[in-house]
């Protein structure tokens, strides 16, 4: 039995780049097939029916034809353009941060519906009046979980003992929290305050980004949690998160 020549998928556009004069190479994270690199022929022409449908941070339903070297988008329908995210400079930077991390933590053609839902729900949350930075920290932690890199937050990764209040530290290279008695060789150990550990555990236990409580997180606490999660993300990515620097610039623009 031959496989179908075309298929449909619901996906979030992560990035795109021009190919030749009028074509686009589009990276889409789909619910059904994971990350796909797709060619959109003629999409840069003003007369193209694909024009405007493949902007980054757009939820789109695509029809795709199998190609010899690369599958090609034949039709696209915008499901959600996330205008509230794209219209603000700082929120747009947050959206690009989500897109970069989904791109970086996903392999081609490996479906992960949990990760897809996390990305879409985070972008939806960023378009509301809720705490956008807390939503991003929830995204960071759940991204690590969905990708198989969730840090340990409840016991010491070295000795296995339950952590005592204010007697804990954090080591990305060791896999998460440490008690004060343990110190693995050749890993960077950073302090982790009790409020930061409590906030990380809250993010872990919350069912969805929409279910996050309305919290007024003090800036020093938000920074401590962000730095711990950023260090973890960059450790597993093995590179800096470029959009993080853009986001920090946008906050003070």
From TrEMBL:
Coiled coil: none annotated. The keyword Hydrolase does not apply. GO terms for biological process: DNA recombination; double-strand break repair. InterPro entries: ARFGAP/RecO, DNA_rep/recomb_RecO_N, NA-bd_OB-fold, RecO, RecO_C. The keyword DNA damage applies. Keywords: DNA damage, DNA recombination, DNA repair. Residues 7-82 form the DNA replication/recombination mediator RecO N-terminal domain. HAMAP family: RecO. Belongs to the RecO family. This is DNA repair protein RecO. The lineage of its organism: Eukaryota, Metazoa, Porifera, Demospongiae, Heteroscleromorpha.
